[in-house]
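User: Can you predict the 3D structure for this chain?
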Amino acid sequence: MRLLFGALLALLMLCPALVEPIAAIAVHPAVIAFFVGVWAWPRITKRIKGWIR
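Assistant: Here is the predicted structure, written as structure tokens:
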């Protein structure tokens, strides 16, 4: 995830014309929900495993 984010930042620095289209995609609710899910999933599974043990 960090590598992907770094690559995206490098791409934006090399080609500033891509900032507007990427920003339009990044603020889409489905994209935001996906990344929140990716971020939260390890925490959710860790908590549920704690309930089972």
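The helical segments are 2-14, 19-26, 29-52. The radius of gyration is 16 Å.
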